Hints:
- This protein is of the alpha+beta class.
- It is built from 3 helices and 9 strands, in the order E-H-E-E-E-E-E-E-E-E-H-H.
- The model is unreliable at 7-15 (pLDDT under 50).
Amino acid sequence: MTLYINTYTVKSMIDKKISIEVMGPIIEETIKQDGTVKLQISGNSMRPFYIHQETIVCLEKVHSPLKQFDVVFYRNENEQYLLHRIINIKGSTLVICGDALSQKEYIDESLIIARVQYHERNGKVTPSSSKRYQMKVKWWNKLSPLRKYLIRFFPYKK
């Protein structure tokens, strides 16, 4: 079973948007039942890899140990649903940060709902396990002290 969600919102017949806070439990239930969820990215925190309203991610249940640089969908302690990258693992504590951000978040592994299996943009599908993609992610993270300057080269979308 695959659930498709557009821009963290679903448009009904009367063109009403439903927030991620409302859709979050549906996503969680779909993932728990070994389903997948295709979600259009909303926001700029994962630039340059995921572009606002252009990138679609496929979320799946976590069946193997989480690794550094996995992108995960989770609900933080403030009950917000987020999609960010694991930048470090310390026991059962994950250090998570958006690719365009500098503020790290420390969360327990139990808060993870799903992991990104692949993303697509402009018709091109990139598996999260792609060697080329992984290399780009590692370099981007090595350059984190310069991130606030480098991110200016990637367009911000509203």
